[in-house]
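Structure tokens please, single chain.
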Amino acid sequence: MKTLIKNALIVNEGRSFTGAVLIDSPYISRVYEGEAPAGDATGAEVIDAAGKWLMPGVIDGHVHFREPGLTYKGNIASESRAAAAGGVTSFMDMPNTNPPTTTVADLEWKFSRAAETSVINYSFFFGGTNGNYAETGKLDRHRIPGVKLFLGSSTGNMLVDDMDTLRRFFGETDLLIAVHAEKEDVIRRNRLLYVERYGEEALDVTFHARIRDAEACYASSFDAVELATSLGTRLHLLHVSTARELSLPDCLLPLSSKKITAETCVHYLWFSDEDCLRYGNRIKWNPAIKTAADREALRMAVNDGTIDVVATDHAPHLLSEKEGGCLRAASGGPMVQHALPLMLELARQGVFTKEKVVEKMAHHPAELFRIDRRGYIRPGYYADLTLVDPHRKWRVAKENIRYKCGWSPLEGQIFHHYVYITFVNGHLVFRDGEICDNVHGMTLAFC
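Here you go.
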């Protein structure tokens, strides 16, 4: 199937220019500056994208789509459709499901399920535990982005705290090691301190960042970087939330040469702990959202290259699970549908450029995880594309939220960039509010 997208402002590889893209599914066939020759459009469906921006589809390297076992919150079918509506064309899902993805059999189940139900491209992290290192020898490194280790407890209780096991994961595999880094003994100490001082029932969400504080994040990230440096590990620090941690990744090297890389998430770039008074538990995440100074430092780190990629940590819960004090309310929230509009809103405010947004959400995830032929608008690459209308203002509301959990912490927010069309492997999967359910994504391939 051929499609010609013409008159678009193409945002790609650090620049923006008016041009056209010819798709011959599943690939991009040609990229033109200016108009495409008339003969090249023969037999193609033509989309006139005048006034719109054409970007590579977002590659979200950090989601929790909740399948299997937690599907009352979300599942691969529902959340992949929400992702497509937000211009996301590929996802990498985390292992803390029920059962957790800690055996090859459980991993293969997820791949099979995604092949049946996902409208966008997919892969899955394998989950490390204190007792399953031997399973890594059975993994196909060309099908998964890496191994996820929880160095602090979070949803799913997959804490890895045995040092001999950590040394094996870090030192005896060539797989990327992605870590949730929070120091468990610091968290326990802080929790005990505040419970003794105020009582558990008095601890509202404003205490969450005091319990899971910057010290807990930095101490754990420091230990992980030190171990990775000594053993030559490819280490990826997930959801960096503090200014202190920014001293740890390789920041002066090009991404292709880095052994230690870092991700932050859209909510750390948008919210600060001051917003807890307004949003309450809706913005309770692990790690916790930190101060406005941390947020500013993270924004600067996205621009200067210290932060390599921006993801969502999309983690839906029912609103009923977000009730209670800070020790009881669930941590996490749904973000995958709204991440690109949010980042483009920050670009509109002058925090980033639209080219930087594309770099951190499409180009760099493809490079960091070494994904085959995705993340760029280039001939021969898969036609994973999103067309954005930068002149269409819209409000996040119940009626346009696509998450199965039915809510967003961004409800009421007005955005000025509207995801109009999403292509996955050259097939139109989303157009102006409508999902094309006959589209299926592909398994991502890793080089």
